[in-house]
Target: Elongation of very long chain fatty acids protein
Amino acid sequence: MNYMEVTMPNYSYVFNFEEEFVHQDTRVWMTKNWKYGFYYVGIYMIFIFGGQHYMQSRPRFQLRGVLAVWNIALAAFSLMGACRTVPEFFHVLRNYGLYHSVCIPSFIEQDKVSGFWTWMFVLSKLPELGDTVFIVLRKQPLIFLHWYHHVTVLLYSWYSYTEYTASARWFIVMNYIVHSAMYTYYAIRASGRGVSIPRWVAMAITCAQLAQMVTGCAINIWAYQLLKAGDRDCHISDFNIKLSLSMYFSYFVLFARFFRKAYLERKSGGLKKCSSADMTAAASPGLAKVKGGE
Model:
């Protein structure tokens, strides 16, 4: 296929900051500064475990208002990211098919809107580490899935951007959509306005996360088969596929295990009752940070 003949999605409006986006400059920056991701992860790990030790003998912070604002901001960002990347995703699927969506990155098509929000997605993995700050300061349970997910997603996203991994189109769109619902759920619980959210909502978000992991594994397996069949035009490396598949499979196992423990295990006479903190954790990639919606 002649990639220069590929048409662009019909965006109703393009912002100036999107129009001025230059993907080559961001790739150069990420390539030169890839070590920063490991520095941030190191600081993050020191903070969460050092912070937990520091808070052991100290009263927990409430931070109800700050937490609500934080979740509203992340929900709004995720919703905006979804609105700007979904059109390109479905445009590609509808007009060029599954192969193109997995193997041809949007940057080849010079789609600045999708390119900008791909860049924002990668950068957002750094401030999202702030979710853990609330867990530590509020002395909430910090499960392995939480910090493992944050660390691996940040490092993988930064690495993949330097390669312009084409299959990331799938991962980014799925993540934006699920995070839109997830952070909206958190914002409502954190508002403390007495709003009662049905238990099935948390379960539905968890199921969406599980579906995300299954889809991620399927896309990676298919891309791997393409490479093994000798397809040299598929813009994804063998090493990247192995990293991504390992991550998605491990997430699926951890999510499935948590879902079973939180919702399906039976105690005397009925379903196990899980705490609100557990429900929050189950609905997200390890974000066990809000107990009782606080």
